[in-house]
């Protein structure tokens, strides 16, 4: 439960309340083999979306495909926006879930369809700074949001609703509690180093 609830509720918020993704839409998910990324991929697939997953290695690509990704982009070897345009026939994607931040901001702008939505919910590579709002217009009247779960799960009823959705998805098999690595509590520094290096898959658990 510790490895699932916060990330699962975040995925529920992102898909249903921020992105409002519908069946048939094509969605771009960064860090798709990470803790939230795997849940997003499975959740999106379960509601009928087509998922383009961005990952950093073949091992992570395999995990993303296992979670339901329809297409995988290896960001170290491929131009993200060019591949998105290729996959979508030049249309771009209407919703982008970006947990990377600074390093992928331009690719997100270049991958969005007109009136598309970029949901920036993390900054693993650093925060996005100096946003020129005119660029959003030039790229097709884009929308950007920077949500946090704590502004959505503001009441006991809202928190219960997210919990119910997470467990329903878990029971259906659409998502799994993916624990990729475990560290003893005294190795917390090593755990952080691996997280910052982007070498982890799924959730990372510290064991007291």
Describe the protein.
The protein is globular and about 50 Å long. It has 8 helices and 8 strands; from the N terminus they run αβαβαβαβαβαβαβαβ. 41% of the residues are buried. The two termini are 16 Å apart. The protein is of the alpha/beta class and 208 residues long. α4 runs parallel beside α5 (105-111). β1 (26-29), α2 (35-46) and β2 form a beta-alpha-beta unit. A 6-stranded parallel β-sheet has the order 3-2-1-4-5-6, with helices on both faces. The mean pLDDT is 91. 40% of the residues lie in helices and 21% in strands. It has helices at residues 5-18, 35-46, 58-67, 80-87, 105-111, 133-138, 156-172, 188-197, and strands at 26-29, 50-55, 71-74, 93-98, 112-120, 143-145, 179-184, 203-207. It has a single domain (5-151), classed as Rossmann fold.
Number of domains: 1
Radius of gyration, whole Å: 16 Å
Q: For the record, what CATH class applies?
A: Alpha Beta
Q: Give the integer mean of the pLDDT values.
A: 91
Q: Give the percentage of residues in beta strands.
A: 15-25%
Shape summary: globular
Main sheet, how many strands, which sense, barrel?
6 strands, parallel
Q: Just name the CATH architecture.
A: 3-Layer(aba) Sandwich
Pfam family, one: ADH_zinc_N
Keywords: NADP, Oxidoreductase
GO cellular component, one term: cytosol
Protein name: Quinone oxidoreductase
């Amino acid at each position: 439960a510790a490895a699932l609830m916060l990330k699962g509720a975040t995925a529920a918020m992102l898909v249903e309340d921020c992105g409002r993704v519908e069946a048939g839409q094509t969605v771009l998910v960064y860090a798709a083999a990470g803790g939230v990324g795997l849940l997003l991929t499975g959740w999106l697939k379960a509601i009928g979306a087509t998922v383009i997953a961005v990952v950093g290695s073949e091992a992570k690509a395999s995990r993303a495909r296992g979670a339901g990704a329809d297409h995988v982009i290896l960001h170290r070897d491929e131009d993200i926006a060019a591949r998105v345009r290729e996959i979508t026939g030049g249309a771009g994607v209407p919703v982008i879930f970006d947990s990377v931040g600074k390093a992928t901001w331009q690719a997100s702008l270049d991958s969005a369809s007109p009136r598309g939505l970029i949901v920036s919910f993390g900054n693993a590579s650093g925060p996005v700074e100096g946003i020129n709002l005119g660029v959003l217009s030039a790229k097709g009247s884009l929308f950007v949001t920077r949500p946090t779960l704590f502004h959505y799960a503001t009441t006991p009823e809202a928190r219960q609703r997210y919990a119910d959705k997470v467990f329903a998805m878990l029971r259906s098999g659409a998502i799994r509690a993916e624990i990729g690595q475990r560290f003893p509590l005294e190795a917390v520094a090593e755990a952080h180093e691996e997280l910052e290096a982007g070498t982890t898959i799924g959730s990372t658990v510290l064991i007291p």
